[in-house]
Amino acid sequence: MAQNSISGLPRPRARAASSNHAGRFERLSAELVDDGWGLPDDLPPLRTEVSVKVPRRVITRNTSPDIAFDRSINPYRGCEHGCIYCFARPTHAFLGLSPGLDFETRLVARPDAPAVLETELRRKSYRCDVIAIGTNTDAYQPIERDRKIMRGILQVLQAFRHPVGIVTKGTLVERDIDILSEMAGDGLARVGLSVTTLQGDLARKMEPRVPSPKRRLQAVERLSNAGVPVRVMISPIVPGLTDHEIEALVIAARDAGAVAVSMIPLRLPREVAGLWRDWLAEHYPHRLEKVMSKIRDMHGGQDYDAEWGKRMTGQGLWADLLQKRFARARRAAGLEVELPPLRTDLFQVPLAKGDQLALF
Q: Which stretches does DSSP call E strand in the chain?
């Protein structure tokens, strides 16, 4: 059962959330209470726990009109990167877990995902289109180093000559350059790498287990040098905290070899709003009112507006200003380009292992 935090307890090392409120679907919750003795609490390190799930299917479909893909794969649920602003945090409530610390520390892995994916791609009813990976939680988060689920998925997609678009903050993506460069050469793969700020200290607080901004830009360069098209995603932009970096981020992306850039203003759906306010009050209390005021200005006076067509861009004066500044910076950097669509015409179901046709 998720527990709420109380003031005075030490923050878990390298974690962004400071609370662990029960998910919105839970009827019961536990609360830590100060016993009044004033004695220090020697809490054990908050270690990552990983459970295993065998999925019946791994391709998730969506019909959202403001999303450019209709299918995605998530090898993991929850994310050890622990970005405090992550819009996927509320999905942990569907597991009976907290969008707070549980999201960062109680993860679900799907080691059978590659085999299940192959089964889905072999169905006669399957019609090929780009699969997006990393849209909910990061496939290249730290536990992927040992579990290699993402690499297994890429190997299946490569065998089927299936297009894939990857979004990540993890430099572990470099491990798979051998697969990605070959697929990219056939117009079957591209990577979106998120860089939210160039300030190392801010990134450490906001994204505690993500590689540094400098290290991520190195990954952009290495992928680009290997022939993999990379889009740097300047997301989220936080008004009053990171918006002054727009131009510098675009230039850094260009200099690292990115072929495109994009940006999305900060989104605070459901439980994320409270987690974000608590984080901001702890780390930047003097900016709390300024940042929240601009965020509400971009979302019709609310912390967040989930309306399609507005949730990704915002609305109002500040949103319009951000979009115009970004457009000008992109144009000045020579990155105002539309990338060609990934190819879907190369899709081919390979012979199954042991297939008798393989003898001829």
A: 3-4, 30-31, 49-52, 60-61, 71-73, 76-77, 106-109, 131-133, 164-168, 189-194, 230-237, 260-265
Residue ranges of domains in the chain: 52-336
Return the number of other C-beta atoms located less than 10 Å from residue 52's C-beta.
10
Give the architecture (CATH level 2) of 52-336: Alpha-Beta Horseshoe (3.80)
Residue 19 pLDDT greater than 80, yes or no: no
- In whole angstroms, give the CA distance from residue 96 to residue 25: 7
Which residue type is seen at 293? S
CA distance 118 to 341: 23
Task: Give phi and psi for 93, each to the nearest 5.
Answer: -65, -30
CA-nearest of 193, 194, 110, 196 to 149 is: 110
- Contact between residue 92 and residue 103 where contact means Cβ atoms under 8 Å apart: yes
> Tokens representing 308?
């399609």
Lookup: tokens for 312: 């990704």
Asked if residue 278 has pLDDT above 70, the reply is yes
Using CA of residue 148, residue 154, residue 160, residue 166, what is the dihedral sign? positive
The percentage of residues in the chain with a pLDDT greater than 70, rounded to a whole number, is 88
Is it the case that residue 48 has pLDDT exceeding 70?
A: yes
Residue from 169, 160, 163 nearest 208 by CA: 169
